[in-house]
Amino acid sequence: MERIYEHLLRGHLGDERQMAFVAGPRQVGKTTLLRSLLPEGSLSLNWDRPSERDLILKGSDALLEASGFWDLRPEGGERPLLAFDEIHKFRHWKRFLKGLFDAVDGKASILVTGSARLNIYKRGGDSLMGRYFLYRMHPLSVAEIAGRVFDPEQIVGSPLKVEEASFENLVRFGGFPEPFLRGSERFHRRWSDLRLEQLFREDLRDLTRIQDVDQLLGLSRVLTAQVGQLANYSTLASQVSVSVDTIRRWLTVLESFYFSFRVQPWFKNVAKSLRKQPKIYLWDWSRIEDPGARCECFVACHLLKAVHWWNDLGLGTFALHYVRDTAKREVDFLVVRDGHPWMMLELKRSPREPISPVLKHFAGALQVPHAFQAVFGMDYVDADCFAEGNRGSPLRVPLRTLLSQLV
Q: Can you list the domains of the chain with their CATH numbers?
């Protein structure tokens, strides 16, 4: 299945001198993507293969010489590609890549794929500032399975209809390619359990100093059961039997390895707003049993994917929030563009529900250009949700139509 990221990275490798870093959760398709991008005369190394690891450990200059890399370049062809998979497991990976980038001096493209280790631990004296662009790879979305065409200048596209069976599989089995394409409950259950085991028993154990993996697994189960609720660190600490500081640290680690993410409240221009308590969602919504919570997480993941995509392409500075005041009036999601509220979304299950008065209140107070009551159970409508601004006056739209216009 061709991913939209393939078009994105082909453009980067053809136009930019900076390295391309592709970060994302385990099993999202990074290695498959890397293989699809390898032209003739490329060199691809995986840290997990002992012989290729030994080549990397020789250093950048020795690697280029020992591999005969420059002899691989086709006459008159495109720049050769140096690709590295799982190199984040190498303790000095940043120093190695810095030396390699300087050695090739624009005569080759460099592509690096891996987990969140690519963008944590930003401190240190071996900064790669100015030498790479980061692209965050997400699971499949409504727009991708509907056939969204890559456009580097486009924020939202035209609506696209997705087949009912594909939409149901996406909600049920999640957006990770293999279980989505298989569409089997048994396969999904086995795949999901194995992925979680590998994430906690291998990645987190090997790449962090966390010893209490069982308690961290306990936290993951609590977060799964309480997804989309206001997160209280003291309550979480009590449920897992660790300190509040440990909970804060572990949540950061889980975010760094793409297990979960936090959505913070938006409080500018909101009277008596909630300011501190985040909501926590999972990258894999398929593990959530409650249908309402799964649907909310499904939408949160789509919006986060769009926000990351727009930011990574340089289309603006976007952020995902929710809105809530001390009177407990709340709207599910708010997308902020360049510091200003841009799109507000309240999620409903039935098309018979009237427009939420709370949505009307906040949409008017914040003068949001696009405010939607997105209905999960509403059939696709071939109409552009973003055709006209509806500042202060929310529209009822089918959720699948709205999501098909994102990424």
A: 4-136 (3.40.50.300), 142-404 (no CATH)
